[in-house]
Amino acid sequence: MFGEVYAGRRVLVTGHTGFKGSWLCVWLLELGAQVAGYSLDIPTVPSNFEAVGLKERLTHFEGDVRDIASLARVIDAFEPEIIFHLAAQSLVRRSFAEPVLTFETNAMGTLNVLECMRQRPQMRVGVIITSDKCYRNQEWTWGYRENDVLGGHDPYSASKACAENIFTAYARSYFATGQGPWVATTRAGNVIGGGDWAPDRIVPDCIRAWSEGRPAQIHSPEATRPWQHVLEPLSGYLWLGARLWQGDPAVRGESFNFGPAPEVNQSVKDLVSSIASHWPGAKWQIERQSSQEQKGSVLLKLCCDKALDVLRWRSNLDFSETIFLTIEWYKSFYQGLNAQLYGLTAQQIDCYTNTARVNRLAWTG
User: Fold this and answer.
1) Distance of alpha carbon 300 from alpha carbon 293, whole angstroms
2) Residue spans per domain, the chain
3) Residue 22 to residues 15, 107, 198, 305: CA-CA distances in angstroms?
4) Which contiguous run of DSSP H or E holds residue 276?
5) pLDDT in tens, 82-123
6) Cα(156)–Cα(198) distance, rounded to whole angstroms?
7) How far is it, in rounded angstroms, from Cα 41 to Cα 30?
8) Domain 7-360, what architecture?
9) C-alpha distance across the termini of the chain, in Å
10) Which of 34, 180, 211, 281 has the CA that lies 20 to 30 A from 167?
11) Distance between CA 62 and CA 38 in Å, rounded?
């Protein structure tokens, strides 16, 4: 599994209390890694981090990624060999309300991680996670490639483009040759899965409403996204980290898209209809946005040919499997099975891995 790179390795995950970060930590623990996390706070109530009891299973550091001195102290204390940087302000709507926080966290936070790595050449690997929204969205029908123009019409997207530009400067100026760390960035489409309770995200909004017996309010039903289960991009992150550790020159300093097959690019309406079919009594209605309300993009998908060609990575689940795993997790939570949620999460990782073995994906060995 992932070339057995992670067993016994010291791995630091920034943003480990978030949705993707907490799932990544569980997978790393199951792979036998020594895991530490660095986050400012627990971003939601409930949270996946607390639901699966991660604080007792890893080394938990509290701190702000914008504070380079705090981050450096944690790195020096834990001495990680591998860093996965996920800490971010990840909500488009919040970025309109708090643009300074968004740019400071997403751009300067990434700068601080890279600078800490630059000052510690003994560190081996860094995987910097940005977003599919780092591309200048032209609303075209084909997928964005890694060499397409970066940019953004909203603070969140622009901040992620900034993070990518900062990465490129460091990768070319400091990490291209010599003994420094091997680094790469990843860009993933919209992820869903159990344990996400972030506001203004379609699946958590639906689950919150339905768990309270309310109809869900849906915006932009025709907007399409490359919906994928959280384990899909995480498998890409872990495989990319393993290839960096193994010294593959084809991935050093590069960026990779991780997304589902093109046919999984579904509309919001299709997504909600699918999850509602698994939740008894689920109802939803369309809430129209006012003309003054700031909106996100309508059409956005990624081309993942580079990941297929260089990493031999591809998605593993079809849309129905993605929906089933997501709803299974939420149902267990709302049925009060909290004591079993870490086991369920690990079981879903095993299920995903077994499916990947059947599909002969490269990272399964």
Assistant:
1) 20
2) 7-360
3) 8, 22, 13, 28
4) helix 268-276
5) 999 999 999 999 999 999 999 999 999 999 999 999 999 889
6) 15
7) 24
8) 3-Layer(aba) Sandwich (3.40)
9) 5
10) 34
11) 6
